[in-house]
Design brief:
By secondary structure, the protein is mainly α. The chain contains 22 helices and 9 strands.
């Protein structure tokens, strides 16, 4: 608005024309300015600054207006509470790096990493869409004594209360009652989104004002060391969660990652969502991601997404948050050698469950295969599958004796890895031979073409083993090789965690 009123039609400057107006008319015009134009006008000369006398609330509104400008605040994310969908998604790091939010405490435009989930996603605190009530608010400048301004504020509060009551009633109505044919969630975005952004504060301002000292669902830590819930991120496993960027995977490497199968899911998944946390180090007072902190000895680390940070350990009731320290503070206090020992211990702690899971799935697959080839009523045996496959096989004669047996995991695990992979390749080719375009399983070893008994035997766990056995074997060998390398040179972990900005 300030730019569009730079010159009036007569060619005179806005300052000359506005200043020449009587003070009563000037006071009638000022309330219709937007927050950015009001502050800009107050900085024009001493007279207008004395007349407007901008208060802190006016600067807050100006900052809230700037966060909606793409030049300063980036795009406006959309959050659909009905299906818990955030656009752009949290793992779109390149887009989120350009988004800024206003803090009413320190009056700065900050990255989303400085705010908890409620400050960004709650209806009254999130960024409102363009054209909504909150995005088109005027400056709210008023003239009069304190009592008159207070009465007007009370009237606005009564109007807001009535608006909330009206929306509570609308939520009980069927969809065909909504104006303009818009669903309730979109109407709420237009009418109510962003109306309480003046209360939004960054994590550090909340800490300084004692917000995290009170019981709140956002703080999983203590008053001295707040552990603030942040956005969920997608990771393939715990090593990627706690050591992001430690390994540089190529596109081919990423294709070879084994899928993850969960008890509560029908299909296998490639990623898992992990809740991230922002923690304020009690020593250096720097906010970092939780992975940058060493939690001392005797605490239960959060290894899997379903694990709780407050889970009780055998010798003490939950983690002692006040003793947490970031990696840099630990290195300054007890030295890099002790930090290397702690990091190596933590690496083994998060890798052991991964190895246990892969080993169990690999063993389950071979055990299921042995049981199937021995107990099926179709006459399908491992020897018959080998006769159908016909090779060629490349292995030592001693390995061939084991190769011909209908062996379980204990026997297969003693085989040479190359012979074990060939054994699995035979089974994989057999399974693919059973699949027909019609979706019916047929036994390729039988000329009669009868329906294969495997269709009633195979479950999703065994199918997952068939699709991912080689990938799980390679991933297991990768973890074991990395553990040996870190044991030989634990300083590699120290050099990584002390890099600038790794956990920021």
């Amino acid at each position: 608005m300030a730019g569009s009123l730079a010159l009036c039609p007569s060619g005179l400057s806005l300052q000359t024309n506005f200043s020449s107006l009587p003070a009563e008319i000037q006071c009638q015009i000022l309330p219709f300015l937007d927050p950015i134009a009001l502050i800009s006008l107050s900085q024009t000369n001493r007279y207008l600054r004395r007349l407007i006398s901008p208060e802190r609330s006016h600067f807050v509104k100006r900052l809230l207006q700037l966060e909606l400008d793409f030049k300063y605040g980036g795009i406006i994310p959309r959050f659909h509470a009905h299906d818990n969908l955030l656009l752009p998604p949290c793992d779109d790091l390149k887009t989120w790096a350009t988004i800024r939010y206003a803090c009413s405490g320190c009056l700065k435009l900050l990255s989303h990493k400085h705010f908890d989930n409620h400050s960004l996603l709650r209806l009254g605190l999130r960024k409102p869409p363009l054209g909504s009530v909150a995005a088109t608010q005027l400056s709210g400048w008023e003239i009069g004594d304190a009592k008159a301004r207070g009465l007007r504020r009370q009237a606005r509060l009564r109007a807001e209360t009535e608006t909330r009551r009206r929306w509570q009633e609308l939520r009980q109505l069927p969809s065909h009652y909504f104006d303009n044919g818009l669903p309730l969630e979109e109407l709420a975005d237009v009418e109510l989104s962003g109306l309480k952004r003046e209360r939004r504060m960054c994590n550090e301002c909340c800490y300084q004002q004692g917000v995290w000292a009170r019981p709140t669902t956002s703080n999983a830590g203590s008053a001295r060391t707040p552990v603030i819930k942040s956005r969920p991120m997608r990771y393939r496993d715990a090593t990627e969660r706690y050591f992001p960027g430690l390994f540089s995977y190529s596109a081919e490497d990423l294709k070879g990652f084994p899928e993850r199968l969960k008890q509560y899911r029908t299909n296998a998944i490639e990623f898992e969502f992990w809740t991230t946390y922002r923690v304020r180090c009690p020593t250096c007072a720097i906010w970092q991601e939780m992975a940058a902190f060493r939690k001392g000895e005797g605490f239960g680390f959060k290894v899997k997404p379903r694990d709780l940070e407050r889970s009780d350990s055998a010798d003490q009731s939950g983690p002692d948050f006040d003793n947490w320290k970031c990696n840099r503070c630990v290195a300054n206090e007890i030295g890099t050698e002790e930090l290397a020992r702690m990091l190596l211990s933590f690496w083994k702690h998060i890798v052991d469950p991964e190895l246990h899971g892969f080993n169990w799935r690999i063993a389950y697959g071979w055990h299921f295969l042995k049981c199937y080839t021995k107990e099926n009523k179709q006459g399908v045996t491992w020897k018959r599958i080998l006769q159908w496959h016909k090779g060629p096989y490349r292995m030592a004669p001693s390995e061939w004796e084991l190769f011909e047996k209908e062996a379980d995991f204990e026997t297969v695990s003693t085989m040479d890895p190359e012979a074990r992979f060939q054994r699995f390749a035979v089974w994989s080719d057999y399974v693919e031979g059973c699949l027909k375009p019609s979706g019916v399983w047929k036994d390729p070893t039988r000329k009669s073409g009868l329906q294969h008994g495997l269709v009633s035997k195979v479950n999703r766990w065994f199918r997952s083993w068939t699709d991912n056995c080689v990938a799980m074997e390679h991933r297991t060998q990768f973890f074991q090789r990395c553990t040996r390398e870190f044991e030989a040179d634990p300083g590699r972990l120290v050099d990584y965690v002390l890099q600038e900005g790794v956990y920021q």
